[in-house]
Amino acid sequence: MKPVDAYFLNQKEPYQSIMLYVRSVILNTLPEVVERYSYNIPFYNIGKKPMLYLNVLKGKDFVDVAFVHGVLLEKDFPILKNNNNRKQVRSIQLKSIEGLDQENFEALLRAAAESARNIKKAWFI
After folding, report:
1. Engineered SS bond to 122: which of 49, 92, 112, 116, CB 3.0-4.6 Å?
2. What total of structural domains would you count in the chain?
3. What is the pTM of this model?
4. What is the per-residue pLDDT for 40?
5. Sequence-distant (≥ 6) Cβ neighbours of residue 71 within 8 angstroms
6. Is residue 125 part of a domain?
C-alpha cells in the first residue's frame, strides 16, 4: 500500500470520507496531477510544483484543502480563506462532503493548475 493510501485509510470519519471524495474530484478533474506523500500529508503537484495539499489541523473539525498559490486565486474564488495567517496558502475548510460545491471546486482546480504551470517558483513569498 502506498503511504498516501495509508494516510487516507488511517483518518477518522468524517475526515476519511471527505478526503477520499476530494481526492477523487482532483484526480478526475486533473488527470495530469501527480499525487505524492510529503511532510506526512498528501500533496498534488503539477509537474514538480506543489498545487495543493490535504490536511486535518490539530484542534480543528474540518479538512483543510490548501492551495499553495491560493493568494493569487482568492479574488476569483472567495471560498478560499486565509486560515492561520498564512502568507501564500489559502484553503477551503470542509466539515462535510455536502459543503463542497463540486462545479466551483473543479473550476478552482483548473485555475490552480494553470497558476502552477505558469509560475516560476512554487513558494514565491
Report:
1. 49
2. 1
3. 0.92
4. 95
5. 87, 88, 89, 90, 125
6. no
Query: Tens of pLDDT along 10-42?
Result: 999 999 999 999 999 999 999 999 999 999 999
Mode of pairing for the β-strands spanning 90-94 and 63-67: antiparallel
Domain assignment of residue 54, given as a range:
3-118
What is the domain-level CATH number for residue 99? 3.90.1150.200
CB atoms within 10 A of CB 124: 12
Band (55; pLDDT cuts 50, 70, 90) = very high
Buried b (16+ CB within 10 A) or exposed e, 26-65: beebbeebeebeeeeebbbbbeebbbbbbbbeeeeebbbb
State the DSSP string of 41-63.
EEEEEETTEEEEEEE--TT-SSE
